[in-house]
Design goal:
By secondary structure, the protein is α/β, with parallel strands linked by helices. The chain contains 30 helices and 17 strands. Strands 6, 7, 8, 9, 10, 11 and 12 form a 7-stranded mixed sheet that branches.
Length: about 850
């Protein structure tokens, strides 16, 4: 009886222990096999982040934690079983190196994504090797353990009565192990459900297709995006179901190419935009990311689809907003041009009236009041010009590249700023030792404004101190520079109070003035440095500011330039010629009565005879009746504007068809000036009009002869020697030579004179051989400007007379006049040598 009971108990224990060992082995096998599964899931989550399919890092952290826990669990079993396989410690050591990044901030995790991907790639074979090797090792050891347990059980069968206590203990252990198995199974089920849920709730549609395009699996988002149920999509052909008809052949050809060559056109190529269709035939833009999963039976593609309709709509909205912004910018430019005219026109009347009043008999107090009013007008005009300078700097137009003599320009700019420096007791210095004597190509107007604004700013904030303009020019060292490229380095150094580090970050902003206290000692709009920054940027240069409180400030500008071999800088700021000019017959056109009266008064005080017209229509009628030496034309006028009137006069057959027309207007934008010249105008005077500016504009015009004493020279007059050519008493203007010496220095002036004499001799020979009127006029015009700049006043005047004769169609008179050029040129070399002697 006892043996029977013992045998039954032994048999039961035998079976239970077998179940225990099998469960534990199953658990180990499951753990080791799950290593590879979790490795693939972690790799998939990592790839989704790397390829930009999602910006959410939570799934990646979850997959890392799951994989890490599996490795830790495997390590525990590995240690308990004394495995010889070292794969698990290697995996654990690698993962622990990224725990801080996983548990850290998103930035730390994103920085570690690529190293993590590389580490996982290096360890890709470890999970499978661990699983296979560990299972084999544990199988052998389990077999040995079973044999040993079997021996124990057989022994226990024989002594069952004596070891009843141990039997009860074994039953207790069995129940605990069964409970562990249930827990592990539950966890595995939960993990599987979690993965399935992640795929179902993904906002992107996920399809798995084979290399024939057949859909083998999909998630819930695919049903929503394509508006088709799962049963309908499974087993269907993706190209024929979800791709627009016009693109199906293309998609099918990609699959055929892959089956033939093994090269995919979309897999692992990053995001690709491709149109798709839903169940209603509605086509929508989609972003596709595909990845290839090769298997033994056939290849599979995992394809992620994202509906980007909303993104496309936003892009179109952005483009529309950009177009609206550009339109608003053009409207702003038009507004600035209009406000320029509206503000300058009344200011023109105020300043011109003050200038006329200043020329009359005034008491000392009255003259002081007039001076104050004129100074205020200059300040207001400076503010208007600052605002317009911002508009010009932001415009793509107006950049005129021309040869510039940097040495002369620096001297001129410092000389122009000297009165301002004297008024604030500032000692102004110029250091141009580092400049080359050759001409360079740049935009002189922009460069002048940069220097003027920086000097003005330095003088304003350094009362009683020192301001230095230092200029150096050296070969450019910028990448891609060519031979002949130069780098101009300008420094404006002052000994003022300096600028704090905080203020240095905002001084280039518009409308910023550091002297913003109630007792402001300096004026201005706060636009000066903003204009400088824009001008420097237009010239592809850089500007920096170095300063220390109490020790002054240094602004450094670097501008790339190109050298040139042209002999005459076309934009050099030459001083006005000190030559007398006969009174001229002028037509003044302006719809503003005050402007007409003031402009007429100015011209009459200069000795000119003035006829006025209140509008464009009257100007056309007046110009058709009597000849004028020049026409000063306003632009903005009712009915017929200045441009229309100029074109009508130029296109007519009246006596003023070739008469120079000068635009007198507040419209100062570069594109507006270009329009004036296209209409046939030959000069420009910006309102408010100053007598000096007006005189300079009229100086370029040769007076038309009228009456007996002023009739245009004829060939007979020239032959009789009766031509009136005594407007200039001397062959060379000593004042002009003195100004050139002050501007350039003795050696450079000698070099310029030598170049001029050589050029003039060649031009005279060309004029003597010219047979066409246009050629004769062009050569005479060129020599007139050059000789006038170099002080050869008699030669310049004679060239202008030849040009005038050509303009009036009197070619024979022009040919006769050109015979005198050689005689006027002959004494020039000796006269220059005498004037430029040491």
């Amino acid at each position: 009886m006892a043996l029977g009971v013992g045998g039954i108990l032994a048999f039961s224990i035998w079976n239970k222990l077998d179940e225990i060992e099998t469960a534990r082995q199953d658990q180990r096998g499951w753990v080791y096999s799950q290593l590879e599964v979790e490795y693939l899931k972690l790799t998939d989550a990592l790839h989704r982040v790397m390829f930009g399919e999602t910006n959410d890092l939570a799934p990646l952290r979850t997959r890392f934690d799951v994989f890490y826990s599996r490795v830790k669990l495997a390590e525990t079993m590995h240690i308990n079983a004394d495995d010889e396989n070292e794969g698990i410690p290697r995996l654990l050591e690698m993962l622990e190196g990224y725990v801080l990044a996983i548990d850290g901030s998103d930035e730390d995790l994103r920085a570690a994504i690529e190293p993590l991907a590389n580490s996982l790639e290096e360890m890709r074979n470890v999970p499978r090797e661990v699983a296979i090797a560990s299972i084999a090792i544990h199988a052998e050891r389990s077999e040995a353990q079973r044999a040993q347990v079997s021996l124990y059980i057989k022994t226990l069968v024989y002594i069952v009565i004596l070891v009843a206590f141990f039997l009860l203990s074994a039953i207790y252990v069995l129940s605990k192990r069964s409970q562990s198995l249930r827990i592990a199974t539950q966890r595995a089920t939960e993990n599987e459900a979690r993965l399935d849920t992640m795929l179902r709730v993904s906002l992107d549609a996920v399809l798995m297709i084979d290399d024939f395009g057949t859909i083998v699996d999909l998630n819930g988002s695919a049903e929503k995006i394509f508006a088709r149920p799962r049963d309908e999509l499974l087993g269907s052909s993706m190209p024929h179901t979800l791709v627009p008809h016009r693109l199906r052949a293309q998609f099918v050809s990609h699959l055929e190419k892959f089956r033939t060559t093994g090269v995919s056109s979309i897999a692992d190529k990053g995001p690709i935009e491709f149109p798709m269709i839903d169940a209603n035939g509605h086509e929508f833009p989609a972003e596709i990311v595909a990845s290839l999963i090769p298997t033994q039976e056939h290849n599979l593609f995992v394809v992620y689809f994202r509906d980007i309709t909303e993104r496309k709509e936003k892009e179109e909205e952005l483009l529309r907003m950009r177009d609206e912004a550009l339109s608003a910018y053009r409207e702003k430019s038009r507004f600035f041009a209009m406000m320029s005219h509206e503000m300058r026109t009344p200011l023109n009347g105020v300043i011109a009236a003050l200038e006329l009043l200043d020329g009359s008999k005034l008491t000392p107090d009255q003259r002081k009041y007039v001076a104050a009013a004129m100074s205020s007008g200059d300040v207001l005009m400076g503010h208007i010009n600052d605002v317009l300078a911002i508009e010009r700097a932001e415009s793509e137009e107006g950049l005129l590249i021309a040869p510039v003599d940097l040495v002369a320009m620096m001297g001129t700019m410092v000389a122009a700023m000297q009165p301002f420096a004297d008024s604030t007791q500032v000692r102004l210095h110029l250091d141009r030792n580092g400049l080359c004597n050759d001409l360079v190509l740049t935009d002189p107007r922009s460069l002048q404004q940069i220097i003027s604004n920086l000097l003005s700013n330095a003088i304003k904030f350094s009362p009683g101190g020192d301001v230095t303009l230092r200029a150096q020019c050296a070969p450019s060292e910028l990448p891609g520079s060519h031979p002949g490229d130069l780098m101009l380095r300008l420094q404006v150094i002052d000994t003022g109070k300096g600028i704090s580090e905080v203020d240095r970050e905002r001084i280039f902003e518009d409308f910023v003035s550091l002297d913003s206290r109630y007792e402001r000692r300096t004026g201005g709009t706060g636009l000066g440095l903003g204009i400088v920054k824009r001008m420097v940027a237009r010239l592809h240069g850089t500007i920096t500011c170095d300063s220390e409180l109490g020790k002054g400030t240094t602004f450094t500008v670097r501008i790339p330039m190109r050298g040139t071999t042209e002999a005459e800088p076309s934009t050099q700021q030459a001083l006005p010629e000190a030559t007398d000019q006969r009174g001229m017959d002028l037509l003044v056109v302006d719809d503003n009565a005050l402007n007409r009266d003031l402009l007429s008064e100015m011209l009459e005080q200069m000795g000119h005879r003035v006829c006025v017209a209140p509008g464009g229509r009257e100007a056309i009628e007046t110009a058709a009746q009597a000849p004028f030496d020049a026409i000063l034309m306003d632009i903005s006028m009712p009915e017929v504007n200045g441009i229309q009137a100029t074109r009508a006069i130029r296109g007519g057959e009246g006596p003023n068809r070739l008469t120079p027309v000068i635009a007198v207007t507040a419209h100062a934008m570069p594109q507006e000036r270009a329009e004036f010249f296209d209409a046939g105008m030959e000069g420009f005077v910006e309102k408010p009009v100053r007598r000096k500016t007006l005189a300079e504009a009229l100086r370029e015009i040769t007076p038309r002869a009228s009456g007996e004493a002023k009739s245009a020279p004829t060939a007979e007059d020239v032959e009789d020697g009766s031509t009136e050519d005594d407007d200039t008493d001397d062959a060379i203007s000593t004042d002009q030579i003195s100004e050139l010496l002050d501007l350039l220095g003795l050696e450079k002036t000698r070099a310029q004179v030598a170049s001029f004499l050589k050029t003039a001799q060649s031009e005279i020979e060309g004029i003597a051989s010219a047979t066409e009127r246009d050629d004769l006029r062009a050569r005479s015009h060129a020599l007139a400007g050059t000789s006038g700049m170099m002080g050869a006043t008699a030669l310049s005047q004679k060239c202008r007379e030849i040009q005038s004769a050509c303009d009036s169609g009197q070619v024979q008179a022009a040919i006769a006049l050109r015979r005198e050029l050689a005689a006027l040129y002959a004494p020039l070399p000796a006269l220059y040598e005498e004037l430029l002697a040491d």
